[in-house]
Amino acid sequence: MALDNKRDKHLSFTAMVIDDNTVRNGRGLSDQWADSVVVRPRTTERHITVHKTLVLGFAISILTLIIVTIIAVLLSVKFEECTGEPSGRPASGNHTKFNQTRDSQVHHRGEEHGIQPWKLLRLPTSLRPIHYNLHLTVFMDNFTFHGQVSIEFECLNSTRFIVLHADRLELQRAMVYTGERRRGALKVHRQFKYPANQVLVIALNGEMEPRRSYKVNLTFHARIEYELLGFFRSTYPQLGDKRYLAVTQFSPIHARKAFPCFDEPIYKATFKISIKHESSYLSLSNMPVEGSEPDEEGWVTDHFVRTPRMSTYYLAWAVCNFTYKETLTNRGVTIRLYARPDAIQRGSGDYALHITKRLLEFYEDYFKVKYSLPKLGKFTKMCCLMEGISCFTAYVH
After folding, report:
1. Which residues does UniProt call coiled coil (predicted)?
2. pTM
3. 55: exposed, middle or buried (C-beta count within 10 Å: 0-12, 13-18, 19+)?
């Protein structure tokens, strides 16, 4: 018993010593067992290698993107230099003075640096039309017409390009000269059409001088199309037969289908029209007939008075065999209505005639201004089916 008690005391003392040493050294039994186990090294080297690969790939991607961007910018600049197209479009605005607008300076500067003005959406403002002399020969048997136009224009900024609107026109000849005589003709380098913008381009060998007037003569021909645009044809019944007439619809941008012109509202000019047609027809236009002269057998040419200064879309003419009915306003203005002969006889156009008279009198009284033109500036074409009228024209003499 005494030996057992001594052995138990010795073991307890030993355990206390071990526990005391363990606590003092900051280690437990689990740490002792851990020391006896072989610990494998952690795989931090593999993780570091993976991170390095990702960073390297990201850096290469960023560098590639920068290089591609630089190449794209260089290619776009080179493409603009090759095509001559500007990187931006000219700003639109109210251009009241051509030689003082920023747009005019931009176009002029562009031409000096080789920009092709016919590729712009708007006509270059280097030129300003003054007057048109237009002569037309209308063939109602095959629905074609021949034309010759002489355009007087002023050069505002030096340029060697004349850019006009022309659509569906076959151009035959172009001449450019200064003054009233053709001995001052300028040599034409080439002429061509740019269908994308519906323009005709006349390139001269030399530049035109600013603040000088020039003239361009153009000969052309085209078809009288069966549509409601430009110079077109229409039909109506008369005594069981089909009759034809040819009329114009130039608003908003269809004067270019009838003759080469500056077909934008900002370009205002005066017009003098002459129409040659078969004597069985009559011709109408914005202004009264100044005189008629017979040509070869069965043909006549009507010369119309010069118009006021106006835009191209206000210009109008017609070739038909209508008849008319007229009335008189309180101030002595004669109003005529042109329509089919049978419609005039039935009185189908009386309402249009009398409402035109009332409207003209109302506006004269409202504005306290007497109607100043010899006839209505643009005759009114109404193509309709009301009461059997296919087409009639009302205008003021």
Report:
1. none
2. 0.69
3. exposed
